[in-house]
Amino acid sequence: MASGDDSPIFEDDESPPYSLEKMTDLVAVWDVALSDGVHKIEFEHGTTSGKRVVYVDGKEEIRKEWMFKLVGKETFCVGAAKTKATINIDAVSGFAYEYTLEINGKSLKKYMENRSKTTNTWVLHVDGEDFRVVLEKDTMDVWCNGKKMETAGEFVDDGTETHFGLGKHACYIKAVSSGKRKEGIVHTLIVDNREIPEASE
Predict the structure, then answer these.
(1) Cβ pair 194, 116 in contact under 8 A
(2) Burial of 79 (0-12, 13-18, 19+ CB in 10 A)
(3) Residue 86 CB neighbour total at 10 angstroms
(4) pLDDT tens per residue, range 81-116
(5) 89 contact partners, CB below 8 Å, separation of at least 6
(6) Eight-state DSSP code of residue 178
(7) pLDDT tens, 170-198?
(8) Distance CA 106, CA 185 (A)
(9) What is the DSSP letter of 179?
(10) Any idea what DSSP says for residue 21?
(11) Distances (CA, A) of 7 to 12, 15, 37, 145, 187
């Protein structure tokens, strides 16, 4: 490449959504597990330029330049369900700042603790492909690799079954009472009559 040539570095014109050299003010990165997948949130904060940039999965969602107030909040949406996220910027001392992420008005830690009570997640490998299946217990919605699945519910002798398909594989999530008040209902994913262990997120 000749000097002064403005040609892209990528021959196939598939340049990445953002370049690492531009992200010199990157101050925080969070991975957030939602029903439609795990999303990466990155935040740039230029304390000398007043710049604030929020990226979700590498795509720029917010860009503000020359912000004179260095503390505050940036609110945006994440994922297919447009989940509300807020980055709080607080001064700790002098020119040091703390960055916290809230999801639906709760700290990320509280949100994830609550989410582990309201969802079940399974990760499996079928026909050479990885699948992440999420059950939202409150609505009984089933998500797979970021897409809400078409399901059919069925009452059975010992509980319920929520049926759906992964390619040519028959799947269902069985819901049965644990018989213990604190445990409540136990959800199990069955694929081709084989139980899949739950993933820990």
Answers:
(1) no
(2) buried
(3) 14
(4) 899 999 999 999 877 889 999 999 999 999 999 888
(5) 45, 52, 70, 71, 72, 73, 74, 97, 98, 99
(6) -
(7) 999 999 988 887 778 899 999 999 999 98
(8) 25
(9) S
(10) G
(11) 11, 11, 35, 36, 54
